[in-house]
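User: Assemble these into one structure.

Assistant: Restating your components, then the assembled model:
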Amino acid sequence: MVRFATTESGLSVTFVGLILRQIRSRPLRAGLTALAVAIGVTAVVALGVLTVSLKTTATELLKVGNADFTVSQRNTNDLINSTISVSDIAAINRIPGVGRAIGALISTDSYDSNNPLVIEVGLAPVDQAPFGVHILDGVSYTGGATDQVMLGYAFAKNVGKQVGDTIVIDKHSYHVVGLYSTNVSFGNSTVMFPLSTLQGLNRLSGQVSLGFVKVDSGASIRQVRRSIDNNFRQLTTIQSASDYGRADRNLTLISAANTGGSILAAMIAITGVLNTSLLSFFERMREFGIYRSIGWTRRRVVGLVLGEALIVSMFGAIVGIAMGWAAINVLQHLRQLRGIFVPTYDSAVFLRSLAFGVLVAFLGALYPALRAAFLAPLKAVRRE
Amino acid sequence: MNSGPQIGSDTPAIVARHVTKRYGRLSVLNDIDLEIAHGEFAVLVGPSGSGKSTVLHLLAALESPDDGEIVVAGHRLGHHAHGLSRYRRNDVGIVFQLHNLIPRLTARENVEAAMFGTHRGHRQRMARADELLERLDLSDRSGEHPATLSGGERQRVAVARALANEPRVLLADEPTGSLDEVSADIVLQIFADLVAGGTTVLAVSHDERLNRRADRLITVIDGRTETGDV
């Protein structure tokens, strides 16, 4: 039976109790070590959630209109900068097995200081339903209208607009004719224009950003994708998040930044634990010598040192998760990320943070633990 | 258990043959021979610096000899011996001259710490520690830390710790040196009980009270041994 607490006098001491005793005897040092781990875990949590969230937001685009896959320009730096000619979308519609291909133009603009980045979608009225647009209030704009827009209901609520109001975007006034929702959450924060109007505003006549393809029932998605990839060398098809990197390098860069940031955070935390464990080792050499001389095995001495580091690190990891969560809330409200960064709390990020705590404890305390275990008992006992 | 080849039970509890120990150029033990029977109470005497404590440290496997052979409780010791932790824990108990208690642990916990890794659960460890501390008249001091114990009390806690795992051989460096008459009598009575029960006791001592009780005094001078009966 393992007991996790001991008293100073009345009860038996356990191995875990010994570990806790040591931690309690130097609270400031344990606290600073935990803080180093907490800072590392904060970075891991914040970067992890940020990366997952941006990936989720980005890949939600793939699910628009329940499309089987998306078509974009090959090797663009950002999917939003992809351009595909409308004639290519028409040609894709003629490929055997393609049930429906919709082209949509996507651009960004600034609305006001609270909404510095608004996603604009240009879509023909006929394509709204297949695109997953559901009109909640009002009506759709007409095909060639240059002064009509529809607002995603979340954006409308954010800026306090409703059907019948006027909205000014990039010095142009538009009449709000409808509010809509989409089957993906980011779509509810967008502004929708007639396709030709948004093409004109962006000087992209005859161009769209992405194509959304639904294959015929019974047709092979794989074969249809291969046909498009083979027939349109300038385009690429995207079905999964892993395909995404072929079209959009930003996600790859974000993932790389996450990995790099996590490694840096780990190095900081490991250095913190190593520093404390080494200091503790030098202070307690005599104690380790006594343990060895009364028959403790090397393994038990290693367990004592690693156990202390593990408990402190896990405490730091829990604090770090809370700090990471707070950091995410701060990031979420940054003007620059509003509308783009919708936090996605993936349990894997938190599990990874706890694993990070264990790894930091192990790597930081292993060397001092081994030195303690391999001390010559008598030399250590004689040390003043 | 494997701290070297096992030796038959008819061999003495402690055997040292041609043992030499050097620290750099300083030769501390020079070709010493020693045999102590099972259940014998022997005391190493001699001037300071003659090598008495080094003999105990070699027998406790805290150091290795440079030359010679050592067999204790049937276990051959030396540089290449295996299972030394188990040997130190189960077969031999050592009382250091300077007590060497863990400052952060109470008297009872210091005794219990010696029983980690044995078959005893924590209740049994606590019961055994209480039993030993009671025998050493330290029941009311079991919750105290070493810093708040007197020198004599610390020495008795060190004796209790050495006896925790019922060793076959007890090695004690000046076990009564810092004890008053009453405390010394308690320790000496425990040693007598141990010897009566078959435990071998080898002590280093300048204390006449202890030397008088010994079966044999072994004089160590300049790293060599000379044996004589009491």
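The two ends of chain B are 36 Å apart (CA to CA).
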